[in-house]
Amino acid sequence: MASVKAIIGSALGRFVFHDASVVGIRDVAPRFRRVDLEGPALQGIRWEAGDKVQVFLPETGMRTYTPLSWDAQKGATAFLIYLHGEAPGAVWGRTLQQGTRVQFFGPRRSVSLGDSSAPLLFFGDETSFGVAHALKQAHAQRDLTCVFEVTRRADCAEALREFGFEDSDVERSAGDAHLAEVHERLKGVLQARKEARLVLTGKAQSIQALRARLRSEGLPSPTQVKAYWSVGKTGLD
């Protein structure tokens, strides 16, 4: 049965959504799928790396994705979909085929780095690979260090290698014990590069724990924080 959000979205979609069609699908790793979209409605739209779009899933409602890229002249964009379990976005991602119609609105501001040339320290998880890649491409002149917490390194290796983030992942462990290693990696960069800007994304509980650890040692506060999901919740933006 469709959710209330899905029903409302379907009714409003013809007036507020951009329409595009799937023109390419490629599995870049066991749980990661790149989806390329094109359509006249995507032409002439202003997009910055880190901006988000909200995609309408017919039986569920809205889910948020960060485009990997956007070609306003051609009218093309691409998403990286994390195929995790039976989450609504993962189920939708598996059903996509060449020619599937996709509706979404945006882009809108989400993670913005501005014009600073300061080194960037980025934390996230599997849901953050796309935004990290987009930021890396758009800010190639900046020194970027990424640290990702992941459920299984083997599931992520090919995607991280494709995006140039090899060996930037730490596998999750019971009781979030792995966050000690994540903290040490972040701490090392912040102490070595005093001017580094810290961005925390991904799981809300991990962000909260890392902020507390860093604060307790007098290290700089994050420049930006963006939780993409939280334990026990779906559709967090």
UniProtKB/TrEMBL annotation:
InterPro entries: FAD-bd_FR_type, FNR_nucleotide-bd, Riboflavin_synthase-like_b-brl, SIP_FAD-bd, SIP_fam
Domain of life: Bacteria
Stored PROSITE patterns: FAD_FR
GO molecular function, one term: oxidoreductase activity
Domain FAD-binding FR-type stretches: 15-114
Pfam families in the record: FAD_binding_9
PANTHER family the record matches: FERRIC REDUCTASE, NADPH-DEPENDENT, NADPH-DEPENDENT FERRIC-CHELATE REDUCTASE
Name the record gives this protein: FAD-binding 9, siderophore-interacting domain protein
Organism whose genome encodes this protein: Stigmatella aurantiaca (strain DW4/3-1)
